[in-house]
Amino acid sequence: MTTPVRTDRAETMQARDIAVNVPTVTVDDPVAKAVRVMAVSRLPGLVVVDARSRPWAVLAGTQVLRLAVPGAYQEDPALVRTVDEDHADVFWQELADRTVGDVSPSRPAKPVTVRADATLLEVAALMARQHSPLVAVVDDDGVLVGAVTLERLITSLAVFNADD
Amino acid sequence: MTTPVRTDRAETMQARDIAVNVPTVTVDDPVAKAVRVMAVSRLPGLVVVDARSRPWAVLAGTQVLRLAVPGAYQEDPALVRTVDEDHADVFWQELADRTVGDVSPSRPAKPVTVRADATLLEVAALMARQHSPLVAVVDDDGVLVGAVTLERLITSLAVFNADD
């Protein structure tokens, strides 16, 4: 493994240049905390890490929401319509005390991660392929060093210079 | 755990109560504009409307990004790594001048919409099921009246009262 020397390519952005620090949760945290952490930080998803700060899963926002919506409601729109309105604001309380690990698949998909020196194209292609608006950035040991959000990626691309 | 006091159902929120006005695009708009509109408005997705302001598609943010990432890059991580870094920031220019209609499936999935009187549970279940962080709210004629974002949904739920 060689470390790229960047004399002439210094202006090309890499994942590390647009990554931000993000709060994380573990599989032992309650679902309600996971939902809150994501909302308070205005993140489009959430990184679940293991005890060594390595991403165990990178969840899109809708997957975090999914943790809080009882499965029967997700699958059956007709059932959802039978829930009276007084209960329809508090459905999430059914699962909020369970942990992220309790309600996650036992074998989550490979975490959506890139190395710190990934190009923006690599990040974009990964987001598009995995339908994930959040990508975890890891170091050589697989330890989380930050994350790239879809919003940050887009605003970092030259899209805004196209005809402005 | 405290349960909100609900003297009647007037206080139960519906989609209309948390919907926000969102900018839209049509199939004739360039992809670059679609990406910009989403980013400038800090939306997690985008509503594509027809000439009568009815949702034609509700795209998650990663689907909007997908419009701007040439298909070959999405499918082939090895190919992405061969793109030199100078080009890796401007890949999107290949497709930016094409229109949303040009690069969308000819038969998009049924738009992710709810009626204005949908409960928050209905909105949540739909987002979770369709993996869409944005839901369009329509009136009786199917005309767009607003949209609910995942962030707005979460902050509107009582999640924040659970143990704060």
TrEMBL record, chains A, B:
Q: What name does UniProt use for this protein? A: CBS domain-containing protein
Q: Please tell me the species this chain comes from.
A: Umezawaea endophytica
SUPFAM superfamilies, alphabetized: CBS-domain pair (SSF54631)
Q: One Pfam match, by short name? A: CBS
- Location of the CBS domain: 105-164
Q: State the UniProt keywords alphabetically.
A: CBS domain
InterPro entries registered for this protein in UniProt: CBS_dom, CBS_dom_sf, Diverse_CBS-Domain
Coiled-coil blocks: none
